[in-house]
């Protein structure tokens, strides 16, 4: 049966834990607990020879975290009078 904690490595990720529960015979709920805010993107993949239908969820660092404001050096302080 499906349900319970998902034993996957979350080291060096924004994920603190993951768990799932089978709500009905055809419905599965997956919960991802996060350490920080992320931007999620999801899409489905059709079956292939190895896997059935799949849902892919990518978790990206927020733009503010991923693109810090660059520091511009004060050129006036670096020039001799």
TrEMBL record:
Gene3D superfamilies, alphabetized: 2.60.40.3500
Chain intervals for the UniProt region annotation (Disordered): 1-22
InterPro entries assigned: AMIN_dom
Positions in coiled-coil regions: none
Highest rank taxon of the organism: Bacteria
AMIN domain: residues covered: 2-59
Protein name, per record: N-acetylmuramoyl-L-alanine amidase
Species for this entry: Pseudomonas syringae pv. actinidiae ICMP 18807
């Amino acid at each position: 049966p499906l349900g319970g904690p998902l034993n996957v490595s979350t080291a060096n990720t924004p994920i603190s834990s993951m768990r799932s529960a089978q709500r009905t015979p055809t419905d599965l709920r997956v919960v991802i607990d996060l350490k920080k805010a992320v931007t999620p993107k999801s899409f489905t993949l059709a079956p292939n020879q190895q896997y059935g239908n799949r849902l892919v969820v990518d978790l990206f660092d927020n733009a503010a975290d991923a693109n810090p404001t660059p520091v511009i050096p004060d050129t006036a302080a670096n020039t001799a009078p």
